[in-house]
Amino acid sequence: MSDFQWIENGSVTATPGFLASGVTAGFKRSGAPDFAMIFSETPCNFSGAFTSCTFAAAPVQLCKNRVLNAPFIRAAVINSGNANACTGHTGLANAQRTAELAAVRLGITPDEVVVSSTGRIGVQMPMDLIAHGIDLGAAALSADGGENAVKAIMTTDTVPKAAAVKLELQGKTVTIGAMTKGAGMIDPGMKVPHATMLCYITTDVKADNALLAEMLTSNVNDSFNRITVDGDMSTNDTTIIMANGLSGVELKSGTPDAAAFRNALLAVMQNLARRMVLDGEGATKFVTVKIEKARSEADAKVLAESVANSLLCKTAWFGGDPNWGRVVAALGYSGAEFDPDKTNIWYDDQPVVRDGGDAGTPETSLLGIMKQREFTIRIEMNEGSAGYWVWTCDVSYEYVKINADYHT
Amino acid sequence: MSDFQWIENGSVTATPGFLASGVTAGFKRSGAPDFAMIFSETPCNFSGAFTSCTFAAAPVQLCKNRVLNAPFIRAAVINSGNANACTGHTGLANAQRTAELAAVRLGITPDEVVVSSTGRIGVQMPMDLIAHGIDLGAAALSADGGENAVKAIMTTDTVPKAAAVKLELQGKTVTIGAMTKGAGMIDPGMKVPHATMLCYITTDVKADNALLAEMLTSNVNDSFNRITVDGDMSTNDTTIIMANGLSGVELKSGTPDAAAFRNALLAVMQNLARRMVLDGEGATKFVTVKIEKARSEADAKVLAESVANSLLCKTAWFGGDPNWGRVVAALGYSGAEFDPDKTNIWYDDQPVVRDGGDAGTPETSLLGIMKQREFTIRIEMNEGSAGYWVWTCDVSYEYVKINADYHT
């Protein structure tokens, strides 16, 4: 299923026909890059998935409108440092104005521009900085600008997160490039991606908007919706896919080619999702929580997320404490119905709970697992045949420090 | 509505006819007191409310059985340092054996004894220590032993939490005494109390078990179920009320006397609930989250708990950050449906959000509120007339430290 190759240092500009840039417009007091643009030389089919937060930010509302009404897009404008969320009609007008300014500068129409923002909530967007960013960003657009673009969308991220793959379809090469940001305010389990996470994906395949939506939704559910850092969802989460068709490869729903493409796209999205957790605010551990043999996938999901979001589990992982009592407590209060006497739990390959009680593995055998950067908690409910997994991380002093000090 | 008086340094032994003790049986490596007993000189009507965690600990199962089947009880045996949870049939047999040992020592029957445990999950109870504790505890029972008893049930609590009130009914004096423990693994929103919280209440009123159950359930929903420290619920949560009838005051459901008694009982339970939050693991702030004008109480509850359990809100409170963006984000992802443009928010008396956007209060006016030990976040949804409130606290470095180091 891995009929694709990773492109080293790949990003959104790995895909032919896409230019990008990342510049300093002045949103961040630190002077770090804070403004990114993506530009396609030709019109792109596209789709998007967005936060389900009731307080969806103005740029999210603009993007949703594009997905519903625009046949294609050509550009994306992204700033970090200000979320343009809870900014009312002025905020919406500012997002729309951002699209207009970019359109004028790029010689396209406002409907061909999508906008994303991440950063502090509740502050009106300084439109002079937006105008400045568009001037600088448009001038800096280049076919190797992906690396700068991904740096410009970081907030509390400690490393830029971009990836690209290529695969052969119909005798031609198809490319998928992507960049993402997100380290905190990250929680799974919604219909759409969420967390202060932004993800932009470029590809040169030809696919209509409906097929792109179908693939994006399905893959988001198996990638970004599987990760949780802190159980908090953001107002601004956005994933956009843009497909310019330049490869000459056309995909139709239900074909093996579409399946191969979706598989490669999932690999890119899972790669980025994983790296978001690894870069989770203050995270020192990457933990896979895997539920098996549950009554239903809904139950399995509730159980997995209850453990993954338990503050007591997360702090125990930080402390390297093999204490499974907190894991069973989190299963027990999850709301899922099950017989606790049938529950088995493993840390990696070591049994820790057997039939709802201590499996007898000496704690010394478990301490080594808990010290690893990564481990898996596998939980067998023995209630049915459904499963679900999530990726999460621990909660450390550093998490508290970052979030007690940082003004979002 | 406060036709009662607080009894200074009151505890479970403030009520005539009740003896108590707190001794060191050896469960805690520190040598701190870890074993408490309550004994009533006469049979007591009683009721209880318990964790809804699927992995209910063995002593919880024993107590539930007493509530269902025993007409009265006379004694409670409580240990800290071992939860007797996830211990299977052996654990149940050990809880039953604990009741038997206590019954023999006290000259009553096992069915007259309830048992509670708090501490590490998944370790079989060292029954030699139980036997030792019962010997010491029974010998130490005294009419002023309440103070020792409350100290013996502490785990990560930093202060003992007991209270008592007296009130006049039918020309006679009625007393309510109570003790509680709980500082972490505390979360609201269940049908019953939860958190690793134990609460024992004594009173000398005469009331049948059905009326006691009615009053306890209603009051638990307005006290212990309103508090959250970390969103984690425990396997062992127990609240027991014992009524020996010695005051000669008999209560009937629906009478003004029953209402006055319930009101005084609620005051005791809210006092203890408040102090559990103030003593929350590592807590530096006490925060009331109050939802007003919601569509339904269920909505108001979901909204209040979403804010109270948001790790991003809790760390912002720790940092003294007036950042309301995290509050609206938590409302927005709560799952409740509402129009975000109608939301108003106040920190104490200062407006921070008006119609879903910045209310314009300068941050300097808010910093003073955030520095207080206590403040209220009042949120007006303008969607209906329902409300709900919860009490919660911040999450600090100390919370992480306590829970990364502590073996529950």
What's the layout of helices and strands?
2 copies of one chain form a homodimer.
Chain A (H helix, E strand, L loop, with lengths): L4 E2 L11 E6 L11 E16 L7 H12 L3 E10 L5 H19 L6 E8 L6 H14 L5 H7 L8 E9 L2 E10 L16 E6 L5 H13 L5 E2 L9 E6 L12 H23 L7 E9 L2 H12 L2 H9 L5 H8 L11 E4 L2 E5 L2 E2 L4 H9 L2 E7 L5 E8 L3 H9 L3
Parallel strand pairs in A: 4-5, 8-10, 9-16, 11-15
Antiparallel strand pairs in A: 1-6, 2-3, 3-4, 3-10, 6-7, 7-8, 11-16, 12-13, 12-15, 13-14
Notes on the protein architecture:
Two copies of one chain form a homodimer. Chain A has 408 residues and is of the alpha+beta class. Chain A folds into two domains: 5-278, L-amino peptidase D-ALA esterase/amidase, CATH 3.60.70.12; 286-405, ArgJ beta chain, C-terminal domain (Ubiquitin-like (UB roll), Roll), CATH 3.10.20.340. The first copy, chain A, is built from eleven helices and 16 strands. Chain A has helices at 58-69, 88-106, 127-140, 146-152, 209-221, 256-278, 297-308, 311-319, 325-332, 363-371, 397-405, and strands spanning 5-6, 18-23, 35-50, 73-82, 113-120, 161-169, 172-181, 198-203, 227-228, 238-243, 286-294, 344-347, 350-354, 357-358, 374-380, 386-393. In chain A, strands 1, 2, 3, 4, 5, 6, 7, 8 and 10 form a nine-stranded mixed β-sheet that branches. A seven-stranded mixed β-sheet of chain A has the order 9-16-11-15-12-13-14, sandwiched between helices. In chain A, strand 13 and strand 14 (357-358) form a beta hairpin. In chain A, helix 1 (58-69) crosses helix 2 (88-106) and helix 5 (209-221) packs across helix 6. The relative contact order of chain A is 0.14. Chains A and B meet through helix 8, helix 9, strand 14 and helix 11 of A and helix 8, helix 9, strand 14 and helix 11 of B.
